[in-house]
Amino acid sequence: MRAFVYGGAGQSDWTEAPDPRVIDPTDVVIRVDTVTICGTDLHILAGDVPEVRPGRILGHEAVGTVMDAGAAVTTVRPGDRVLASCISACGRCRFCRSGSYGQCTNGGGWVLGHLIDGVQAEYARIPFADLSTYPLPGNVTDETAVLLADILPTAYEVGVLNGQVGPGDTVVIVGMGPIGLAAVLAARLYSPARVIAVDKAENRLRAAERFGADVTLLSDQDPRAAVLAATNGLGADVALEAVGSPESFELCTTLVRPVGRVANIGVHGKPATLHLEELWDRNLTITTGLVDTRTTAALLDMVSAGQFDPTPMITHRFALDEIVRAYDVFSRAGETGALKVVMARP
Hints:
Distance between the termini: 15 Å
Shape: globular
Radius of gyration: 20 Å
Number of strands: 15
Structural class: alpha/beta
Oligomer: single chain
């Protein structure tokens, strides 16, 4: 088969790779039908994730068709169309038993495209299939479902739930890439008084408006002053960091009111300064997190019921074998206007 293989920092190619096979009785092998690229994949290509070794097939977000299943798999069978979650869960370790699947200590967690071969390929092995794949209802398209593999549950769990967004809250989201836009959608489920989107690019702010942001602010035009003005000088109840840069994290800590919450969603490749000399007496709660995907089934039900539609964030579509071009477009989002790019089997 062919796959997108990491060759070290700055090196990758769509090339020949061994066909995957069932190794453990809890595995399935899927034919990859639809796949997408995550900002984390760009961090890997930049060398920011040293655990990823050269030769690894990248990717952790896919929809596919089950081709083979191990003897212990009970929830899916060959021929089923499934969502492959970005998180694999053994279901038995201390963390999985509490729903913290991202911290699985028994060979799960974020392993696809990280510690084992991923899904940016013609075929992929998915471990712990009973807890890590989701049969798809007929009214949910592949394009919709692939957005539930990572970005929707990440924005929902690590952002909105960790940030305890509630009715009447003022929510600021810094960064209007795919995760930030997903956070706008997810925050709106909790009836906030206002959602304020911050980004450095006008086109992303316009996208935020389409997804339900009430106020949009350019990051270089004193967003703190604008947030204070909109909240009678108090600041936001919740700030969600959806970039993964020191500047965006530090900005979030300045936008929340005393007793506010900062939920960091972004993947950081550099240290960020925590200004405790300014924050120590403000009773802030700061959370971080790797998605657990414990809400994927609920999100799938909501999408199936028509409660929200994430597909407008897909801006570019490619054939699966055009993935190198897709990476180029996605990596130059400032020039191309890319939000989410999707590759599909012809």
